[in-house]
Amino acid sequence: MTKPLFAIYGAYGHTGRLVASELLARGAELLLAGRDAEALRTLAAELDAGQRVSTRTAAVDDAPALREVMTDADVLIQCAGPFAVTGAPVAAAAAEAGCHYIDHALEPHHVKGVFDTAQATAERTGAVMIPALSFYGGLGDLLAGAVSEGIAGIDRIVVAYAVNGWRLTTGAKNTATHLFAETERLTFSDGALRAGYVEPRNAVFPFPPPLGPRSMIAPFPSSEVVTVPRHVPARAIDLMLSTSAFEAAEAFDSEHIGAVERAETDFTIAVQVMGEGGSVAGQLTGHDLWRAGALASVEGAVRIAEGRGPTKAGVLAPGEAFLAEPFLRELERQGAFTLTLSGKG
Predict the structure, then answer these.
(1) Under 8 Å CB-to-CB from 325, ≥6 apart: which residues?
(2) Which of 20-24, 75-79, 98-102, 164-168 has the lowest mean pLDDT?
(3) Cβ 265 vs Cβ 287: under 8 Å
(4) Which residue, among 6, 269, 311, has the nearest Cα to 135 in the 3D structure?
């Protein structure tokens, strides 16, 4: 039986390198893709995996080259942000080619766009497509699913990210700049997804010890407003990000630091679910948010390639595609974070 071929688009960025290294550690064969041929060749040499790694040049505005990558690959992991620029053409090419697809998007408009434009094509071609299976968005979505399991009459879900030591890559910096300048925000309230201007506010979220209450940016423009309602029947979803994520002067001046320094992040993702019987909570705590996101996308891609993924094709939220708590427990076993659920240890 032929081994599945995993393509990584934007492979020479920080996240793409982490994804490539993790897949190679699992014995995978890789197709590294992106617009910079020299950067691809350099990365392939650095990975030093011989015939297990090949490269292909494909710019986001080169539809034939993208289709060629998707036709050859079994699963694609899209790591090239900002997804407001790169997302639509890569996702469309995957859907049309029947190539399974996972991306690292944070941007809610891109995630909504994949659901809106690729669903019918992916169902027809047999592609499983999971946008936002990464640190921001994906882990919040899965944690919301795990905490909400068995809870009736959910009125409100709060997903709060506390991040310290975040050092943005070029793609992350461009994404953050775009998101916080955006005036057409997506929010979820009264059981419906809404678009329009939302006045940012300061809030305080009561993280469990040892963090305690933290000053937060609200609403945080992340993709859970699009994905969580697909598998959790909540009336409202609130997203928050700690102001500490951007307090360090070097957060936006760190595009060229090394991988070791970039890994020095501490994070907690906390979810509160308010239902008919009161509230329940859960949290993920760990170090190196970049690695946590890479492990999430690789675990999803490997499961799909091995036939352990969703039983239906189409565009799916992370918590639709996989059972939330078992998926998170596997990432915990891999050292991505520590998972704590109320009443579950």
Answers:
(1) 145, 146, 149, 339, 341, 344
(2) 164-168
(3) yes
(4) 269
And the tokens for 114? 């994949």
Residue 342 has pLDDT above 90, yes or no: no
307 torsion bin: left (phi>0), alpha (psi -120 to 50), beta (else): left
Q: What pLDDT digit, counting tens, does each position of 111-170 carry? A: 999 999 999 999 999 999 999 999 999 999 999 999 999 999 999 999 999 999 988 888
Report pLDDT for 345: 39
Separation between Cα atoms, residue 249 and residue 17, nearest integer Å? 26
What stretches of the chain show up as alpha helix (H) in DSSP?
14-25, 37-47, 63-72, 83-97, 108-125, 140-148, 170-181, 224-227, 259-262, 289-305, 318-321, 324-333
Residues composing the chain: 345
**8 A C-beta contact, residue 7 and residue 69:** yes
The per-residue pLDDT for range 249-292, each reduced to its tens digit, is: 677 888 888 899 999 999 999 999 999 888 999 999 999 999 99
Does the pTM surpass 0.90? The reply is yes
- Collapse the DSSP code of 203 into the 3-class scheme (helix H, G, I; strand E, B; otherwise coil) and give the result: strand
How many CA atoms are closer than 13 Å to the CA of 308, on its beta-carbon side? Answer: 9
Which residue(s) pair with 252 in the sheet?
none
CA dihedral 82, 88, 91, 93 (to 10 degrees): -130
Mean pLDDT for 55-67 is 96
For 156-169, b where at least 16 C-beta lie within 10 A, e where not — what string? ebbbbbbbbbbbbb
∠ Cα 333 268 239 (to 5°) = 120
pLDDT at 247: 80
Q: Is the pLDDT of residue 184 over 70?
A: yes
Best CA proximity match to 227, nearest among 122, 141, 157: 141
Sign of CA dihedral 251, 256, 261, 266: positive
* Residue 174 burial (10 A CB sphere; 0-12, 13-18, 19+): middle
